[in-house]
Design a protein that fits this description.
- The complex is a heterodimer.
- Chain A is built from 14 helices and 11 strands.
- Chain A has an 11-stranded mixed sheet with strand order 1-3-2-4-6-5-10-11-9-7-8, sandwiched between helices.
- In chain A, a hairpin with a 2-residue loop joins strand 10 and strand 11.
- Chain A is α/β, with parallel strands linked by helices.
- Chain B is mostly helical.
- Chain B contains 3 helices and 2 strands.
- In chain B, strands 1-2 form a two-stranded antiparallel sheet.
- Classes of the chains: A alpha/beta, B mainly alpha.
């Protein structure tokens, strides 16, 4: 099939939207595909020519709806391109639509979207994971080759693991977040989800780099690629489903076959990851959400009073999980709490970072499951927020320490599970190359 | 942090500060939910000692230069109520 027909097929499948992975489809992508095809024929095409993309709907594409899967932004049109979108277009990427997600990226299973839950391509009764649920589902269905997602505590890697695809969260500072609707700014990162490591690497190469509009990228450079010498499995992470443990042991063998030592280590502080992560998220998220007041965004009908009007709009247009996080964030940062919760979380995060740095002084990579469990039924955890939070145990680690992390799909006992590698901050190339070393052969 | 439990009154006050309406039934539900979450999270009090601050190198400050945004009409188009090129806002009463 030629490229233009492939894009046509992708647009048609996205329009059908059987698994609710798309919020909007861009039919004009077909024109763009013809232009790119022409460039390819002339040998003048950019690095991403021939790759079909969709984009999580919290990343701005100029002139397109930027909904964050919330009623609050259901009609908001982005007035500019995110830095990553500008780079994709420059390199001749074709973008066919925007992906469904958990509302404002708050969720771990794709069920909090105001546009309805996304479904898992491996089994539509199961959750696809979140919050980049539509991104991973669209890639898993083979509709697109790549989708950009965002990852604050696992939002790229969790759905990638559940949908059986690759998902990469780069180091904090490696990719500009200009144009990403922020969830928690000390943790957020944009990254690719794809069916192959080659696509992940190509896309990362294009989207990374300094951007004057995101100061975390200033003076940030990646470490040059080195060989992997040693890998460590945290014993705490082996308390998981047998299907998942089995995949970790297979990954271990693959490293060992390549002459790389794999040892088991104890990292007792890992169990504090969830409280440290969520307390940080609540504080940063409640602050980020203050701008959604029905005036600059949304529709404030009550022109008598600003406070009453915005209270009305926020109550009506924000979903349950978003409200939960705003309220908990307001509580822990309130004057009455004297910042006790937030300060303790910041101190604990620094300690968490230091303990894991100690592990990285004698090992290049952590090898562990992406998710501690297999995907659950849609709706099963929706009424139990704490249970939902706990499923992020192994993904929050990389965000808390600013590290690169990848999830690799592994077939294991009739299931597909995610095997995760976490490297030192700036060791993105090492992480990607190690993934290449242990990935299972196609077929 | 030992007195970590949030009261039902505090839940209502927090909702108000968050600009969210909460009826009595929802306040009760949130009260139970928040206590369960915060009780679990209070385990970080067990962590003794402090680490060095992370990411201190990213505190970059750029020059305070005015740059014209190239799509002002794109921003204004999103205003629900406007007068010419201005966002029309209600009064904020002091209660």
């Amino acid at each position: 099939m030629d490229f233009v027909s492939k894009v046509e097929r992708a647009i048609n499948l996205a329009k059908k939207n059987e698994l609710n992975a798309f919020i909007e489809v861009y039919p004009e992508a077909i024109e763009r595909a013809r232009e790119v095809q022409k460039k390819m024929d002339e040998g003048k095409a950019g690095k991403l020519a021939g790759i079909i993309f969709s984009i999580k709907n919290n990343i701005a594409i100029k002139g397109k709806r930027l909904t964050c899967a919330s009623k609050m932004l259901s009609h908001y049109i982005a007035p500019y391109n995110a830095a990553v979108i500008r780079k994709l277009i420059q390199e001749d990427a074709v973008i066919i639509g925007s992906n469904n997600m958990d509302e404002f990226a708050c969720g771990s299973d794709g069920t909090t979207s105001a546009f309805g839950p996304t479904k898992n391509p491996l089994n539509p009764e199961l959750v696809p994971g979140g919050s980049s649920s539509g991104s991973a589902s669209a890639v898993g269905q083979g509709i697109v080759d790549c989708s950009l997602g965002s990852d604050t505590g696992g939002s790229i890697r969790c759905p990638s693991a559940f949908c059986g695809v690759f998902g990469f969260k780069p180091s904090y500072g490696a990719v500009s977040r200009y144009g990403l609707a922020d969830m928690a700014m000390s943790l957020d990162q944009i990254g690719p989800i794809a069916n192959s490591l080659d696509v992940i690497m190509k896309v990362f190469e294009v989207i990374r780099g300094e951007d004057e509009n995101d100061e975390t990228t200033h003076n940030f450079s990646l470490n040059p690629l080195k060989e992997v010498r040693s890998v460590a499995i945290p014993r705490e992470a082996l308390q998981c489903d047998d299907v998942i443990k089995n995949a970790i042991y297979e990954a271990k063998e693959r490293f060992e076959k390549n002459g790389i030592k794999v040892k088991e280590v104890d990292i007792p502080i890992l169990k504090y990851g969830i409280p440290i992560y969520y307390l940080t998220v609540f504080a940063e998220f409640s602050s980020a959400m203050q701008k959604y007041d029905g005036l600059r965004y949304g529709y404030c009908d009550d022109l008598n009073d600003y406070v009453d009007g915005s209270t009305e709009i926020r109550t009506k247009f924000l979903g349950d999980e978003v409200k939960r996080r705003i309220m908990l964030g307001t509580f822990i940062t309130s004057k009455e709490q004297k910042h006790a919760w937030h300060r303790k979380a910041l101190e604990a995060r620094a300690l968490f970072f230091e303990k894991i740095q100690q592990v990285f002084s004698s090992t290049d990579l952590l090898l562990l499951p992406t998710m501690p469990c297999l995907p659950w039924k849609i709706g099963e955890k929706s009424d139990d927020p704490l249970k939902m939070y706990l499923s992020d145990l192994f993904t929050v680690i990389a965000n808390l320490i600013g590290s690169p992390a990848i999830t690799i799909p592994f077939k294991s006992m009739n299931s597909v599970v995610g095997v995760q590698l976490i490297g030192r901050r700036r060791d993105d190339l090492l992480v990607l190359n190690a993934a290449k070393l242990i990935q299972q052969q196609e077929g | 942090m030992e007195d970590s439990k949030i009261s039902e009154e505090e839940v209502k006050r927090i909702a108000e500060l968050s600009r969210l309406k909460l009826d009595d039934e929802s306040a009760k539900k949130r009260f139970e939910e928040f206590n369960e979450i915060l009780s679990y999270f209070s385990q970080i009090a067990e962590l003794k000692g402090q680490g060095r601050p992370i990411f201190n190198e990213i505190n970059a400050i750029r020059e305070d230069e005015v740059k014209e945004f190239d799509n002002q009409s794109g921003i204004i188009a999103n205003f629900y109520k406007k007068q010419e090129r201005y966002l029309k806002a209600p009064k904020a009463k002091i209660k």
